[in-house]
Amino acid sequence: MTHTDPGLFRVSLALSLCLVIGFAVILALRRFGASGVASGTRAEKRLKVVETARLGTKATLHLIECDGASLLLACDENGIRTLHTVCGGQLEHTQ
Questions:
Q1: 35 lies in the same domain as 3
Q2: What pLDDT is recorded for position 1?
Q3: Which candidate, 36, 83, 73, 6, places its Cα nearest to that of 93?
Q4: pLDDT of residue 17
Q5: Contact present, 61 and 76 (Cβ < 8 Å)
Q6: What are the mean pLDDT values of the chain's consecutive 10-residue runs (95 residues total)?
């Protein structure tokens, strides 16, 4: 007759319960987002990719809106550059 350690059973049960709770939290965060879980509703997003245009295999243009401003970004193998910024209807040229 073998004797099982009740401490080992309790530790295994506690570990299983923690894994189930952790998995449920990960699913909730993926479903609702971190800000939606905290506030109970989905927060309005401040950053929006309006349009993306591929210029070649290594270059793209991105039109981004952020807090009422529009940014035209160029991405290539050298990095990301801001080409134009529009803040409240005013066009600013950036080199």
A1: yes
A2: 47
A3: 83
A4: 92
A5: no
A6: 72 91 88 60 77 92 89 92 79 55
First vs last C-alpha separation in the chain: 81
Q: What is the pLDDT of residue 53?
A: 93
Which phi and psi angles does 82 have, rounded to 5°? Answer: -90, 120
Q: Please state whether the predicted TM-score (pTM) of the whole model is above 0.70.
A: no
Q: Mapped to the 3 state alphabet, what secondary structure does 45-85 carry?
A: CCEEEEEEEECCCCCEEEEEEECCEEEEEEEECCEEEEEEE
What token pair was written down for 19?
């894994």
- Strand 69-76 versus strand 90-93 pairing type: unpaired
C-alpha span between 67 and 51 (Å, rounded): 16
What total of structural domains would you count in the chain? Answer: 2
Q: Pick the closest to residue 91 from 75, 73, 70, 74 (CA basis).
A: 70
Rounded Cα–Cα distance for residues 40 and 79 (Å)? 38
Range of the domain at 11: 1-43
